[in-house]
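Table S2 (continued). Query chain:
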Amino acid sequence: MIGMKKIFFAAAALALFCLAPIFGQEQNAAAQNGSQGQEAAPNEAQAQENSAANTSGGFQNLFGGSFVPPKSAKEFWSQVAPFVNLGANITLNTESKLKSAPSPTAFALAFGGIWPNKAFLSFQPRLSFWTSYYLWDGKNALPAEIENRTAFVLNFMLDLPAAATFRFQKFQVEAGAGLGILARAAMLAGGVGEGDTGASGSAGGDKSEIQKWFWSNARFLYPEIFAAWEWNFTDRIAAGFELRYYLPIGSLANGRGLTESIFALSAKLIF
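Corresponding output:
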């Protein structure tokens, strides 16, 4: 009996000695898992807070990211987002429809850039182009219908606006103001001869009067305002619609009111 008890206690002691390292490893693993769980909990809570902050109010970064001044030409161009506008320009005409055209609508194409891209405030210069017909009534150049045309006119509008962009999760809204400079080049329309009858005595004389009228009395200056909405397809590409209004300084200064105002409605693609 005594011998059997000694053997039993010796076997139990050997078993405990062999199993002790295993229990120790399990306890260490449990302690590590608990520590990791405690560390993960704050991280998870912080991630939830960040997610809530990003989705709160439905916007991702309302006022845009921070701006870092470029240190080289390469960095500058990396901060520029080109864009294209395609739409229609309506030129308001309040003169008699018996001698001039109703407010004409012309197809317009524009190219521009946004700098710095992704910032709340940006500079968005662009150049737009469209064509039109004009006649000379002896005092003013007026929009003309094709059958009464004297001059075929190339119109180039250089826009120099600043804009504020409000960025939401899936779309963005822009509002801006600036100055437009309208350069117009008049030439005799097709089918009109230099010596044809005109208000100044000849069609060639009317064309010259129209050209001088374009550049006199600040008629080339157009303060502008615009608003745009764009859907963000990717981090870089967005597309939407834009509306611009150009105020005619020359017409206001000459007492002709808002005639020659320009309304531009177009699609806008940023890439």
